[in-house]
Sequence to fold (432 residues):
Amino acid sequence: MAINQNGKLQDQSDSYAVAGEAWDAERQAQLYKRTLIIVVLAQMFGGAGLAAGVTVGALLAEDMLGTASYAGVPAALMTVGAAATAFGVGRLSQRFSRRAGLTIGFTLGGIGALGVIAAAQLDHVGLLFASLLIYGAGTATNLLARYAGTDLAKPSQRATAVSAAMVATTFGAVAGPNLVDKTGQLAASIGIPVLTGPFLLAAVAFLLAGLIIWISLRPDPLVIAKAIAAAQPSQAAADAAAPPSAGMKDRRGVIVGATVMVLTQIVMVAVMTMTPIHMMHHGHGLGAVGFVISVHIGAMYVPSLFTGVLTDKIGRIAMAVIAGVILLASGLLAAAAPADSIVLLTLALALLGLGWNSGLISGTTLIVDATPPSTRAKTQGTLDVLIALAGASGGALSGIVVAQSSFAALSLAGGALALLLIPVMFWYRRGR
Fold:
């Protein structure tokens, strides 16, 4: 059995068997489209689940503890929970299926959100912190779900598949913060603290996302992708000859893809974290801060409508270089912008979001290109741990840099760090 120039599996029957059923390339293409629709639908709900922790997590902790000193703890706990979940979901998906891993991850996120509500109702800080840790599972799973759409995609479709999942996340991520007042009113009407309203939405959203994956993601795209790889004599022989520790068909590609995602994550989180503080220190109100951050978040996801297609068209290397240039421009503009200029700060943060988006999509696609189905999910989960830790590091270091220097210095440092993507991509291209 082999794959012809049109990408079809062919032997005497031009088909292969998975779980006792006959499959061919046409059915594979149909399953790819169906999988993408399911992932998009789940991501719309998953995105809504993300909003609670970002919007009111710190406020809830401050309210329960009576001090703002530990308001940063929720973000740290969610990051740790996300990192642990990314690692676990990756291995569950590899061992069993995408369906099993993603369902468990989203379900844990929903349970964590319910735990936060219970903690607020009982005024139990320990339960709050434990629940926020579990809630982080939902945020990690929502990010990991972007890989599911790529399992059966052709190489020329992979970045587009990633971008479709990210666009879907936008709907929920934008809707969530705008429902804070409504969910707060709902929470008050059923006798629970107002600030738990967004977590009520998160619980429903994450559990629905998990239910959609569990019911609809059949047959599993990763299982089919493994069967396709096993049907290729060259791939089967390579897998048989490889040592047990071998997990990458292109180690350099994995390293470069991870580098792109980690660098862009550090730069984005560092500058984004300190922008509201920078604005508040210079007299801007919460309304102005909210506007700038909402534009930034929109720029993180909405451009996926074209950045994914562009990545497939011009290549992963070119798009990663573009990400570095955009992030440099963002850093230079943020550093040079007068503190009272909302227009320039908004533009700088929009560029920051666009640069992150370009880096995440190109880096993700590099990872998919570089990993065989036999180890793909496990590798992806491990690398998303690095993304979570990179974000935590960027947020923590940003405060230190600004305290010791200035917001302008942080922005310039972020731009310079992003510029490292260019020599990294040249190194990758030379190695190829």
